[in-house]
Amino acid sequence: MGTIGGEEMARWEKDEGGAKEERIVVSVRMRPLNAKEMEKSDPSDWDCINDTTVVFKNSLPERSVFPTAYTFESTFNSLHYGLPHLPILISLLLGDDQTEYSGVTATRDESTTKEPKKLLFQLSAESMVSAKHSLDSSIFAYGQTSSGKTYTMAGITEYTMEDIYDYIKKHEEREFVLRFSAMEIYNEAVRDLLSSDGSPLRLLDDPERGTVVEKLTEETPRDQWHLRELLSTCAEQRQVEETSLNETSSRSHQILRLTIESTARESKGRDSSSTLLAAVNFVDLAGSERASQASSAGNRLKEGCHINRSLLTLGTVIRKLSKGRTGHIPYRDSKLTRILQPFLGGNARTAIICTMSPARSHIEQSRNTLLFASCAKQVAINAQVNVVMSDKALVKHLQRELARLEHELRYPGSASCTHHSDALRDKDTQIKKMEREIKELMQQRDLAQSRLEDLLHAVVDEQSSRQWEDSSQSSASHARGECEDALSISAASAIAYQIPDFYSSRFDVSKESNEQSKRHIELPDKMEPPRWSISSPTLYEPIQQQGNEDTEEHCKEVRCVEIHALSTTRSEEFNLLLNDESESDLLPLIDEDRLGDPAPGSEGDAHLRGAVEQSIDIETKTTDNIFKPCPQELNSVQKTMSSRELILTRSRSCKASLMNGSILSWLEHVEQDNKTPPKIFREKLPGRPEEDERRLPASDCDVESEKLSAEVTSSDMPKTETVGGEVDDHVNASFLAEDDRQKQLPSDQEAQGVLSEGHGAEKSIENVGKDAVLCSLESPSRWPLEFERKQREIIQLWHACDVPLVHRACFFLLFDGDPADSFYMEVECRRLSFLRNTFSRGNVGDLVASR
Ligand SMILES: Nc1ncnc2c1ncn2[C@@H]1O[C@H](COP(=O)(O)OP(=O)(O)OP(=O)(O)O)[C@@H](O)[C@H]1O
Q: I want to staple 535 with a disulfide (CB 3.0 to 4.6 A). Which of 232, 233, 598, 654 is the partner?
């Protein structure tokens, strides 16, 4: 009998198999009509028209969804040879003109030109046991009952076994060891076919070998004849019963396994020796059957149910595998698929021979078989050579691996470790970068939110400002005689609310050039700037140098309020007054400072710089810009503010001020709309009288601030603690908790309200009596612009009402924030500190005198 030679295999691998992805090899074998079918004159509807195609010979009804032709790796019809056994067919296909098997002589005819080489290769010993192709492989026979599975598998098994022994004989340089085992799955119970004990065997899950059958007998055949004996034992032990379709119907799935180990003789016993291991499974499945066709009942029916169920699972597994290895594949749904899992699209070469009957009466079953075959041929496999190391070789290999790992542990700086640590460092850098980006994005988001709020509130402010302006016209004349003071205050207070970029460009010069103005407010240089005030970046170098991220965060919460306390009505008078002054004596005001330098060394320059400096000092030390002016200035302001128009010209976060030009221009537009005095007026504001400067008292704001901050940031500070307290008879700047607010309010008798609710400031002015003005200032960090608006309303009321000024110098800052919020507490305390320093001691006297 011929076989596929090495050259032929190499050619096949090169031409067809080697370069391509391996898939299950599927062949279809069609048996001839059997005696019963011919008796019934059951026509033959199927034919193998060539070596790869099976066709449905009859015409299909219209709209039929079934194909008429199926192609496979090989198709053959043993009728062509008139011979029962595949080995003879194979022999003929391989070129023998005439061969003999089991006493039957076969002659080659024209049909023998068919060459199902892949199948033949897979059935060959070369594919199973050679050094190059030593792979696990399995050959299935699948088909309906009585289609010829057992008939085909018997031939294949015999042929392959014979070929294997033939190969062994030819390859004496290697030593072969064969082991044989056989089992059947009958009614979902696994039985050993080499043992007379029919008790079912258990399936075990081995982490290395997969599913193994416990206590399965494994014989080592002495020679080919011994193996034949074992095969006949299996056939005897197998469950075979007669059914209406098959006199010798196999009622179980049979799995014969031949394991072949081969070792090169010359390397045997050496450390480097390795063993090739291959297992071949010959799987003869039980046939699917329709109970009606098989006329089965009782045990046969039960067997048929088990067979059909396990075949259904096999079909599902194959179908899923054919679509790729995605999702769950139900190998464990039947014992058959569980045992065959490694051979179904795993690390094994697989061939399936689908058997079918051509009879019309079995057309449905035949179609199912062809459908199964079509799916199976799509299943990709990944067969790999199994190499088993000798124990010594394995020990050596493991020792080398252990030494390598120990070396890595001892010397972390080695190549691989360095590589890992570099990779970790890169990842860390990436994480930090991403964190920074997230932070920036969050800041931008907050900024945008803040801008939106600003815009909304600015619109509201503008409206309320105009209302107030109308209501305050009546008291405008009250301050006519005070224009000079007002101007000086304007120079000091209005300029104080310059935009941050102005500060940054001007402060250094003014700070050096105007010591006098510094004394004016007496906010000492040593005072540490508040963390949240970075509106003037160049002013406080330490903050910038520290690059404190918290500072930046807080910055965006703090608003720089720029209020121009200017009187529209007065501005015209001022213009008239100022027209007489020489231009060199005039102090440029806001716009000049913002837009250009005053004349260097001029008096106006000196005054302006002093005023700007002190204003900057104040602003950067508090957020309560409203109360920035010194008492003398405030005194003057009282005289003029009644007719003043308070204009919010800048209200935005410090950061936003540097970034958003469009808001700036918009605000400037608003400023113009709100009757900002003509530029000429602001440019020609006279210098500040010296006596005003002399009247300014010293203030130890820094000490107060530190003290207050220390008090309120203390973790154990009770919520109702009063921070501050009375400063003198006239001034009471208290920091109250919400709960204690009512206790501290003036009594009803004392509180003779002069400003009724509904004045537009009811939320800000909680109560106004002859003895007190109670200001409720909410957290600036939450609603910055709302806070600013409230402060402006308070100032408006302050200057508009008829209550003696001293009585209004009583402030309660209502604390309704969270005491645990340290930032909030710090802001509030600094504001309180400022109030106390502004309205305490000599300032109060000034205020009284001025009124
Ligand atoms: N190619 C063939 N040429 C001639 N006879 C065949 C061929 N295939 C099968 N037969 C005959 O058909 C009958 C049924 O064959 P076989 O027992 O192999 O079918 P089966 O598919 O194994 O059935 P079951 O699933 O019931 O076990 C047998 O008598 C067998 O000799």
A: 654
Taking the C-alpha atoms of residue 776 and residue 824, their distance in angstroms, rounded to an integer, is 15
Is 145 known as a binding-site position?
Answer: yes
Per DSSP, 32 falls in state P
Find out whether the beta carbon of 84 lies less than 6 Å from any atom of ligand 1: yes
- The CA-CA-CA angle for residues 632, 635, 637, to 5°, reads 110
* 446 phi and psi angles, rounded to 5 deg: -60, -40
CA distance 90 to 12: 16
User: pLDDT below 70 — which residues of the chain?
Assistant: 1-22, 50-52, 59-65, 72-135, 268-274, 291-297, 345-346, 382-393, 412-420, 467-851
User: According to the model, what pLDDT value does residue 438 have?
Assistant: 92
What is the ipTM, given to two decimal places?
A: 0.98
**Strands 274-284 and 137-143, sheet pairing:** parallel
**842-850 and 822-839 are packed helices; what angle lies between their axes, rounded to 10 degrees?**
60
CA–CA separation, 729 vs 459, rounded Å? 40
How is 158-212 classified by DSSP, letter by letter?
A: HHHHHHHHHHHHH-TTEEEEEEEEEEEEETTEEEETTSS--PPBPEEEETTTEEE
Is residue 483 packed enough to be buried (19+ CB in 10 Å), middle (13-18) or exposed (0-12)?
A: buried
Is residue 354 within 8 A of residue 284, CB to CB? The reply is no
- What is the structure's pLDDT at 383? 60
Q: Which of 44, 83, 246 to mutate to test the pocket of ligand 1 (most atoms within 8 A of CB)?
A: 246
Q: How much distance in Å is there from the Cα of 593 to the middle of ligand 1? A: 110
Point out the ligand 1 atom lying closest to the alpha carbon of residue 151: 18
Q: Is the CB of 246 under 6 A from ligand 1?
A: yes
Provide the phi-psi class of 675: left if phi over 0, else alpha when psi is between -120 and 50, else beta: left
Per-residue pLDDT at 411:
73
| 405, amino acid identity | L
What's the gap in Å between 32 CA and the centre of ligand 1? 10
> Domain 25-32+118-386, what fold?
Kinesin (3.40.850)
Residue 344 confidence (pLDDT): 79
Q: Identity (one letter) of the amino acid at 787?
A: F
Residue 380 is which amino acid?
Answer: A
* C-alpha span between 402 and 404 (Å, rounded): 5
Mutation pick for ligand 1 pocket among 78, 146, 245, 372 (CB with most ligand atoms within 8 Å): 146
CA distance 593 to 491: 11
Token pair for 798? 């302050």
Residue 335 Cα to ligand 1 midpoint, Å, equals 25
- Closest by CA to 186, choosing from 236, 229, 240, is 240
CB of residue 149 inside a 6 A radius of ligand 1: yes
Q: How far is the CA of 380 from the centre of ligand 1 (A)?
A: 29
- Tell me the angle at which helices 415-472 and 784-800 cross, rounded to the nearest 10 degrees: 30
Report the nearest-CA residue for atom 16 of ligand 1.
Answer: 148
Check residue 111 and give its pLDDT.
38
Rounded to 10 degrees, the C-alpha dihedral 536/542/543/548 comes to 160
* Integer Cα distance of 344 and 315 in angstroms: 11
Position 419 scores a pLDDT of 66
The confidence score (pLDDT) of residue 284 equals 92
Map out the domains of the chain as residue ranges.
25-32+118-386, 440-472+482-850
The CA-atom distances, in angstroms, between 778 and each of 29, 97, 421, 785 are 92, 108, 52, 11
Spacing, Cα 850 to ligand 1 middle (Å): 126
Residue 247 CA, ligand 1 centroid: distance in Å: 10
For helices 415-472 and 661-673, angle between their N-to-C axes, nearest 10 degrees? 10
Q: How far apart are CA 68 and CA 370, in angstroms?
A: 11
Nearest C-alpha neighbor of 88 from the set 109, 69, 104: 104
- 817: tokens are 């924030």
Would you say the CB of residue 146 lies under 6 angstroms from ligand 1? yes
pLDDT of residue 396: 73
